[in-house]
Amino acid sequence: MNRAQTGLPALAIALLVMTVFTGLGLGIADGALVSAERNADERHVATSLAEWLVAAESPLTERANVFNATRLARLDASGVARSFPVADGRSFRLRVNESTVAATGDVRGGTTFRRLVVVERQQTRTIQPDFGLNRAITLPRRTTKATVALSPPTNTTVTAVRANDRVLLRNASGLSGQFEVALSRFETTQLRFQGGGSLPAGSVEITYAAPETAKTSLVVKVDG
Amino acid sequence: MDSRAVTPVVEKTITMGIVVLFVGAMTTTMFGTAVPTYRDAVGTEMGERVLATASEEIARAVPPNTTMVQSERTVDLPATIRGSAYRIRVDGRSLVFDHPDITTRRSRPALPPTVTRLSGEWQSGANTVVTVRSVSDGLAVELREESS
User: Fold this and answer.
1) Which parts of chain B have pLDDT scores under 70?
2) Cβ of B15 and A11 within 8 Å?
3) What's the whole-model pTM score?
4) Residue B7, CA atoms < 13 Å, CB-side half-sphere
5) Nearest CB to A44: which of B18, B45, B55?
6) CA-to-CA distance for B99 and A20, rounded, in angstroms?
7) Cα(A217)–Cα(A159) distance, integer angstroms
């Protein structure tokens, strides 16, 4: 009885090894399944929200991918849910330039989506140019309007103001006072003052509103 | 030691018994717990992704601001998930994923406000198509099945 069952321990070891390997296989399969799991719906909401926020039709943008800083500052969570129905009923947090713009509830984990965006700010500037020989000054690009205040000295007459080659203001007997001029945003404008006599610094004052842009990142986090 | 001639028979019998028991236990654990658990997990995950894909495809089918739209887009969806057919139907502005064995899920496609109507239904396995058309007050998005 004792001698002949020597095959049994070998069988037991074989079965044990097989069980161990089956368990390992199941463990690997489990790991693969867990690592492949992601919240597809959350991801879908995060990507579409980020896409719609920076779209050209978005109420927050000036053009595609360019935020208007004033409108962005006025934004809150209910405004986001109203303008972008895809985020309605979700917990989300929008961050621009490392500061939270709009957030609902508590967002802990969730799916994060990042985009590079440009934030545009309207800046009003006043300059009193000191002209060289050509009496011209170039304004920053995308300036759409400017106020030109002319107070030339007594023996100087400014007969015309040109933007690039277009005549903006013209008076043969001399221009003086404040003028609002409209400029094209599609070209960079160079203002040129024509006339006789000298134009010392301070006799021309130009006030313009120019958009100032800064590149930053938009972080959209959606949880549940 | 009279019984020595019997021992090989006993040994073979015990071995057979043990192997049969082992295979039985293994099969029971595999098909009783592990396989159905994985099947359910993969089915749920798959359903979620299919719904998200459908949602994205529908949102992508809608063109940006234009006046006259007449567009059609074929959306490729798997014929079966977890071994059975399923439906994707519209409820309000959301899509609903209906499957006999997987819990029903909803997803909201990101549609612009110009879309005034969202309707239709997709049955898996069919040639699923999303059509966008201009109507009097905006755009109408419809989920249709096309006979190929």
Assistant:
1) 1-6, 148
2) yes
3) 0.73
4) 13
5) B55
6) 36
7) 48
